[in-house]
Specification:
Blueprint: E1 3-7, E2 10-12, E3 18-25, E4 34-39, E5 46-51, E6 57-59, E7 67-72, E8 77-82, E9 91-97, E10 108-112
Parallel strand pairs: 2-10
Antiparallel strand pairs: 1-3, 3-8, 4-5, 4-9, 5-6, 7-8, 9-10
């Protein structure tokens, strides 16, 4: 199991930016594909962005061109730079491995509102 701690959420106005960070406690971080997920109120958790162990990103259509996922294997950390935020981006954001997840972290709340 991978233990993760997410941080960096907050409240911003539409059009604003936030940078989320996620540090994973695992000795095999560098070989894992990692991902950011989000869950909005009343909705199912969804995959937002993922990054392979070699740094190849992939994005949900809803965030393409606005969000950027990156990773620092030396720090066991994955980031999500979120620009041009919209109210629809309001959710709790989680990071974890890409694929079936059994132990979610606490997540970090992102609220986009004027």
């Amino acid at each position: 199991q991978v233990q993760v701690v997410e941080s960096g959420g907050g409240s911003v106005q539409p059009g604003g930016s936030l940078r989320l960070s996620c540090t994973a406690s695992t000795s095999i971080f560098s070989i894992l594909s990692m991902a950011w997920y989000r869950q909005a109120p009343g909705k199912q958790r969804e995959l937002v962005a993922s990054i392979t162990n070699q740094g190849t990103p992939n994005y949900a259509d809803s965030v393409k061109g606005r969000f950027t996922i990156s990773r620092d294997n030396a720090k066991n950390t994955v980031y999500l730079q979120m620009n041009s935020l919209k109210p629809d981006d309001t959710a709790v954001y989680y990071c974890n491995v890409l694929g079936p997840v059994t132990n979610w972290g606490q997540g970090t709340q992102v609220t986009v509102s004027s």
